[in-house]
Amino acid sequence: MALRKWMATGTVLWMVLLYCSGMAAAADSPRIVINIAARTLSLFAGERLVKEYPIAVGQPSSPSPLGEYRVIEKIVDPWWYPTTPGMSPVPSGPENPLGYRWIGFADTYGIHGTNAPWSIGTAASKGCIRMHETDVEELFPQIAVGTPVSIIYETIRITRDVRGNVYASVHPDIYGYNTGTADRFREQLAGAGAGDLLTDPEIEQLLRGAGEKPQSIGKLVEVRLNSSPVTAKGVVYKDTVYIPAAPIAQATGALLVVNNGGGTLEWQGKTVPLMRRPAGLYVGLWALQEILGMECAFDENTNTAFVEFVRVFFNGKLLPGGTQVIEGNLALPLPALLEAAGLKLETNADKGSCRIGGREIPVLMYEGVPYLPVNRIQDELDMFVHYDRQARILQLTYIPFIAGGP
């Protein structure tokens, strides 16, 4: 009985291991992607690019086929059988235009070497894919019959490296398929997760001037607010880090006023320029530090913008206005605080103090606005204060009918 139980358990474990190993093998299986417009053949292991090779493709009068195929045969030292009447078959050797390797993926089409290496990088064949002899001999043992072959025609190529740098290249439309449009550029940007990187005028300008060599068009950065990741990416534009304004406004409850068609951001009498992208408005990282008093940093090693701020809640509701560190003290803007509590400022604070409810209260001035240090709010305004430093949340509780005590 125990033996049968052990055998059954062992069989299940063996089947699980076999299934998992099969999944891992499938994930790393080779596949070939040929881009006719770019004249490149890319070998992938799963989603990982192993190597990209230059190729020659079909002439406009005999274009290479597009679509999804699989390798159907592999031949070493192939013979060439001309389709021109009267021509004799050519055995393997220097006179054979197929070179010394043939990888067939359709009845009359294949990937092969060539005795015309100068044609690589051009549209010169009758539809087959030519490679340098050393390249096809390197590729040959890495693929097998059944390996997927995808043949595409993309004149626009958008790539993104691990550090967030985004590159664009525009290849000639050798077959006249009209794929180099602004709409297609936007689709390619979105596919690379960079849909908000360029505006329509910038795309049009790039299409007019970009070449086949990859050109840097910007950089995407990760954004973390109080250590929590933000879905929307920031961008680096003209050496300045910008992050989406909407998540900042939502998280802080700041009263953001946009003027001039979204060109500027006004907050407590200060104006900051905004950058408009297709999906919305972006604010400079260092402007957040200067205007809203947030702690900001950018880590080039992890390509991440960090924004730290204190969220202030008054009787459970987010209090607009933000915080400032003044003379080493975390402080709140007094006007926003009094408005939330329904209190009135009886005298101006132009001399560093003000009168509220008959009491003289010293304040700190910042950019013409009176601020009250957090550590004095409870004593001066009879509000209960709780500050969670780790979560960076400041809770203020105020009950008017017991304010001031018995």
Keywords:
single chain, 406 residues, alpha+beta, L,D-transpeptidase catalytic domain-like, 4 domains, 12-stranded mixed beta sheet, 10-stranded mixed beta sheet, 8 helices, 32 strands
Protein model, in words:
- It is a single chain.
- The protein has four domains: 123 residues, L,D-transpeptidase catalytic domain-like (Beta Barrel), CATH 2.40.440.10; 63 residues, no CATH class; 88 residues, no CATH class; 92 residues, Copper Amine Oxidase, Chain A, domain 1 (2-Layer Sandwich), CATH 3.30.457.
- Strands 11, 12, 13, 14, 15, 16, 17, 18, 19, 20, 21 and 22 form a twelve-stranded mixed beta sheet that branches. Strands 1, 2, 3, 4, 5, 6, 7, 8, 9 and 10 form a ten-stranded mixed beta sheet that branches.
- A hairpin with a 2-residue loop joins strand 18 and strand 19.
- It is of the alpha+beta class and 406 residues long.
- 20% of the residues lie in helices and 37% in strands.
- The protein is built from eight helices and 32 strands.
- The protein is elongated and about 110 Å long.
